Amino acid sequence: MVGLTNFTKLLQDKYFWEAIQNTAIMWLFNFAPQLGIALIFAIWFTDDSLRLKYKGVFRTIFYLPNLLSAASVAMLYRSFFGYPNGPVNLILTKLGFWATRVGENGEIIKEAFNFFRIVPVSRGIVSYIQWWLWTGHTLIMLMAGITSINPSIFESAMIDGTNKTQRAWYITLPLLRPMMLYLLITSMIGGMQLFEIPFLLTDMRGAPDYKIRTMMVYFYNITFQGGNDYAYGATISIGIFIITILLAMVIYLSMLERKKDRLVKGEGL
Amino acid sequence: MKKNYKMTNTITRGLIYLLMFVIVVLVLVPIYLMLINATRSNAQINAGVSFIPGNNIINNWKNLTNREFQIIQGFKNSVLLAVSQSLLVIYFSSLTAYALHVYNFKGKKFVWALILLVMMLPASLPFIGFYQFVARMKLLNSYIPLIIPSIAAPAAVFFIRRILHQSYLLN
Q1: Among B125, B159, B169, whose Cβ lies nearest the Cβ of A237?
Q2: ipTM of model
Q3: N or C, fewer C-beta in 10 Å, chain B?
């Protein structure tokens, strides 16, 4: 069976499984805070009783990172967390934070942090950049979703004597579900294809220790670097596709189960 | 009671403004540093961070324009592609999403599933096939293969249909 060799190879490829794990971890740590913070801000900004000013300015500023190209953002953060003279390191050393290591003679050496040698920090930086890029976008989407909810629902709830938390929890959130489903699906698809930032942030192979190598970076490494193995690269693409579809199915089914108690029509995927 | 309510409101507002300020700083500082770095030389950038513009901007600009890279032409290409793609995406995706939302027809579910499926394809998967397809149509070295495919933009259809679900309730 010539045709299936690549697929059996893919299933046994421990680097591919590791890439799946890396992608999932970095996407989760980006998406959860992204949705949470955007949701809180969207609820605050659509609450007229708070009388917040500068909402428009804030929204515009928060959206700015999304206008930069991902490649320049990756280079920007690479120098931002640079070793040993990046801005973050300079600020940390001024505040008195040093990385320590034990020298050859047992003495303790203080030095700047080499962020891209520490696995959790590198992954955190990738997630943070994704958060930084996309939260403004999510905020705008959620605000659009909330403002399109019929205001008479809120009015009648207010007359019934609900407080703000109850209104947010029992009215805004359930009625926002179509928008959140959209954000979840698109973010998941984008997250599974995360490429530029982990690719350009370190050595284009997902250093440290291949721990920020996402599936797309692995695909690129196989296809266009080193061996130029187009056939196996295509197989990896198919693998990514299958994983994305499976995840979408899981999201869709979990939404189906809640169909019984939903309030509005038109939630089907 | 009323005074108390006003007090908590002021405190909440203050906390929200503080959080907004923190986020604005987080967003703007890296962008500002990038702009500043554009005015500094490599040696200065390696020496450390600075919030004051350097004096190397003319040199940097020369480095950018003196070589093979034609920035004006690149900008023109980007504008042409962005404008035409946006127009096509908005027009055709709205039509598709409206039809899918408002009308009931045979095969609607199938069409919708197909759109979702295409959306989930990794961007790298169709590259080689698409190149061969375009080459056989003798359309290489033109803008057409970059512009025309945006007629079919599954992500935009998905987005507009979500918006319709949210805001345009039937009956």
Answers
A1: B125
A2: 0.81
A3: C
